[in-house]
Amino acid sequence: MRTTNLLRSQAEKIGFKRAKSGAPPGTMVYTGRKEMDQTHVHLTQYGPAQDRFEHQMAEDAIPDVHETFGTTWYDVRGLHDVELIETLGKRYDIHPLALEDIVDVLARPKMEAYKDGVLFQLKAFAFDEEKRQLSVEQVSIYLYENTVLTFQEDAGDLFASVRKRLETKSGRIRSRSADYLAYALVDNVTDRYFNVLDKIEETLDALEDGILKRPEVKTKGKIHDLKLSLLTMRKSISPLREMVGSFGDSDHKLITEDTQLFVRDLKDHVIQVNDLIETYRDVTNGLYDLYVSEISFRTNSVVQTLTIVSTIFMPLSFLAGIYGMNFEYIPELHARRGYFILLGVMVTIVVVMLFWFRRRGWLQSGDA
């Protein structure tokens, strides 16, 4: 993402943020941009005693729950419909402060425990390799008794792999409680970080090859884009370690010890992601240094070539200048082969100088 676009995006969000300045705590104000026309609500229900899995979707409405299922999962896509989210909040007794954070896309990744529920907030990323742009999406997961509610900014399904596991009965989700589903959703978003970092790594490799072969002026902008993307990821993922740590050590009634064992493993993944980001930031800084070095080296090569050419022509110009003087008595001036003798002397001087330059190592090629 270019610096101007990034600053413009942040300025727009800050503008929305100011709209809630002075409002009492718990006031729901959507601080992002409207990404879709209608809010989609996806309802998924499953349980260990049921052989069937049910999924339904509604626009700008809340699908009805079948009480026969063990676990209920509402997936809300689109945060601009504050009234609909408030209705869900009243139905599942979501704390007003939690509702305020859900519609605040600038909220820091964190875990907040309330009396009857737990809120997890984190960022999801997608990376466009061609444009080298990193898109950021706010994701909120609210854990309630036998119920999980997720809130996404965009219409895309971030949790498609989790939904597929539920449909095929694979894994542990169908046989475990709602807190394990919340863990699986957080883990799913974390796994997507590795996919984004893989794309960034491929882009870094391509940039390195391009710099070594033929550095271009626009390469500097590409490196700057990647540097901004990694900085954005670092700022968003660094607090995630604290959130996952709180998840794994929580004594909340809705979080079981069995699930916490898996959460502690998730903490290792988060640490690995942070380490990769720091590594790629160092690589990006190294690429910039490599770019500057290559540009300087090629510039010096051009200057060296021009200097050698100028140096070679200096004695030739000297000789041509002497024999171009208007004096009648100049040695070899009237000699029949004087012109060819002078050319031979010039060629000999060029050969001797080139040989000497090569002995000094001044004629080494750029690939040497």
UniProtKB/TrEMBL annotation:
Its main location: membrane. It is found in: Cell membrane; Membrane. It comes from the Bacteria. It is a multi-pass membrane protein. InterPro entries: CorA_cytoplasmic_dom, CorA_TM1_TM2, Mg/Co-transport_prot_CorA, MgTranspt_CorA/ZnTranspt_ZntB. The keyword Transmembrane applies. The chain crosses the membrane at residues 306-326, 338-357. Keywords: Cell membrane, Ion transport, Magnesium, Membrane, Transmembrane, Transmembrane helix, Transport. Belongs to the CorA metal ion transporter (MIT) (TC 1.A.35) family. Mediates influx of magnesium ions. This is Magnesium transport protein CorA.
